[in-house]
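Minutes, project check-in
Item: structure for the 263-residue chain
Input as provided by the requester:
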Amino acid sequence: MKRSVFILVFTIFAAFAAPAQVNVGMTDTASYYPLLRGRRVAVLANQTSVAELPGAPGADASGRVHLVDLLHGEGFAVAAIFSPEHGFRGTADAGEQVASSVDARTGIPIRSLYDGNAKRPSDEAMRSFDVLVVDMQDVGLRFYTYYISMLRMMDACADFGRLVVVLDRPNPNGHLVDGPVLDMKYKSGVGAHLHSAVRERLQYQAKHGVNCGDHGAAYQGLNGQFVFASRHKITLRRIDFDRAQDRQAWVGLRLKTRRSLKS
């Protein structure tokens, strides 16, 4: 009886609670713009790499803008877009091969990480930029491949001495940590292959409760030993989201960036 009353009260409160809005890392332009000026920029992004920045270059009537359009509109030298599973626009099926192409809106080349090759850029592609900006919405599942693509790109960036800037976003399932850890006999493209020397230090459960920035910071903290094959230290800058707002958003049951998951 008490449980039923609690659920009823919580449901009524949540229904009428004022929706909280979360400022994702992408909105903190003052923190990451200086890291990009005068450098050739590459972006690891997809259809979720959006934020509400009214009046920003490339923003639509509602103030919503994609990261690539924002950087291009601000005059940054965006040399390449790297696309993860499902492609830059998120229209491909799971595991489907996606050919590299050109973004029709900006003319920037899109280099697919799912073109049937090694899921890691060529040396030529790595030499085309100086800093990689990562911004993708994760959902907190070990077999969700966006964070794995980020880690593979971090590995390549470590080899080539490239700076990585992660524009972080809340994990919509960050309050859930549950399920089995990966049995390394079954490691694959949907289960990150961790370096054997430190594998036990970060074994993710199926619901891991971690943000993309957390993934990156963990790999950076292990000085490159953990990042697939690389033995070079990665240089990472993390632009955090507003964590206080994120906590309020769970009370209001509405996350500002949830719309991007449906794009």
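Outcome recorded: The CA atoms of residues 243 and 261 lie 19 Å apart.
No further action items on this chain.
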